[in-house]
Amino acid sequence: MNFLKRRFSSGDLQGELRDEDFIPPVAPRKGPSPSAPSSPSKTTSAPGIGRGFFSANKPTYNRDRCKTLLVIDDCHTDWSKYFRGKKIFGDWDIRVEQAEFAEINLAAYTDSGCMVDIQVNRNGTKVVRSFKPDFLLVRQHVRDAHEDWRNLLLGFQYGGVPSVNALHSQYQFLDKPWVFAHLIMIQKRLGKEMFPLIEQAYYPNHKEMLITPKFPVVVKIGHAHSGLGKVKIDSPHSFQDIASVVAVTRSYATTEQFIEGKYDIHVQKIGNNYKAYLRKSISGNWKANTGSAMLEQIAMNERFKIWADECAEMFGGLDMVAVEAIQGKDGKEYIIEVNGSSMTLLGETQEEDRRHIAELVLGKMQIYCRPTPTMSKTSSTGGLMHYAMNGSQDRMGPNQPMSQQQQQMQQNQMSQMAGNNPQGNPANARGPGMMPIGGQGQTGPSPMPLPQVGRNQSMDEEDTMKNLRKTFAGIFGDM
Q1: Which long-range contacts (CB under 8 A, 24 or more apart) does 327-332 make?
Q2: Which entry of 50, 83, 161, 260 is 20 to 30 Å from 397 by CA?
Q3: In which band, very low, low, confident or very high, does the pLDDT at 395 lie, cut at 50, 70 and 90?
Q4: ∠ CA 170-155-132 to the nearest 5 degrees?
Q5: Phi, psi (5° rounding) for residue 53?
Q6: What is the DSSP letter of 317?
Q7: Backbone phi, then psi, for 190, in 5-degree steps?
Q8: What is the pTM of this model?
Q9: Whole-angstrom distance, CA of residue 383 vs CA of residue 274
């Protein structure tokens, strides 16, 4: 906690930002965005999205009955509009917080979960928003050529935050050779004809890059996206040169035969929605996903659907998945990689795809974010200290401590129900579905009967617990 004190008491962070004053990140991350690919067919940013876009909007959610969704994406996409007016559990609102990995810090506690801080810039002053996320949507790569945010991923997992895709599966995507190894297992099960995976070789370091492959080849150095770290090699001498580069990077590398392709194939699955696209470079670059390209949506077929469904079964199940393949001039198809929730959205259907993602998130929140009669979200020492340093507890979300009126209502209901249950009547001391007095799984009398006074005391305790359950059910809804 000393680290947090130093961090949040520094002179750089001043002021307090309320829920109404939320503004988006002010320093967009450079490089391609999963929501805005480099393609002439891409959809441009929606009008008004940019710096300060949210500052004029007042919150449209009920602070006492809402769940907080944290979306990790750049500011080119305003995710709040896809959840505006949406309800879960009948009348619960969705409070959307959005930031990039670079603007997020967190602390996680074993007893109170994950507390997130978003640092933003308002009128030249750095301020911090603090909140506890109930659900997470990750639209940025956790790891790329120059960035590695696994420390934040570990914190979300430590705090037990449910996510799309699941945090467990996102951790599996931190190294592409690990993902490719699972694709090899799918091919062994389905066969090369059904799952045409490209042939590839893996080298843990430069020392093993001695066997000269058949040229030309594509060498992929380390873990990167969007064409980074990929080099086309045409001769043994060039291969030795690139091996020396791998030695400097101290990373692993893979090689695969260069396929002279007609076009790339992009197959995506979002929930139960499928789409397929063809992408062909028109800039002369052998990497169709860089430079100018022509994009066309094509009809899904059973073969593409099998690819997506099989890959969606990896790592315990993927809610969102995209399969990348090449259609060679030899007439064959070659699957080259798979991406998860950070997959690129293509073409003119990006808006539709984002709505599908929002529906997917809402369905998952219905399952994993059900309201519970928790007295306080920050009942732990760690959570209380976090809010004491970073913000007042009126931003904790829907599970607020009970008001005096609620406490008085509870006491009145307990008194009324306690007066209707005779203390000595075992039938009233044990409600339907509760365990017998003899212990778990016992249907007969206890092997060691308690004295009458002890039995009555045990019945009183059970009767009190029964009344408390009914009271909480009346206040907070069915548990």
Answers
A1: 327/261, 327/262, 327/263, 327/264, 327/265, 327/278, 328/259, 328/260, 328/261, 328/262, 329/260, 329/261, 329/262, 332/196
A2: 50
A3: very low
A4: 110
A5: -60, -40
A6: -
A7: -95, -25
A8: 0.68
A9: 42
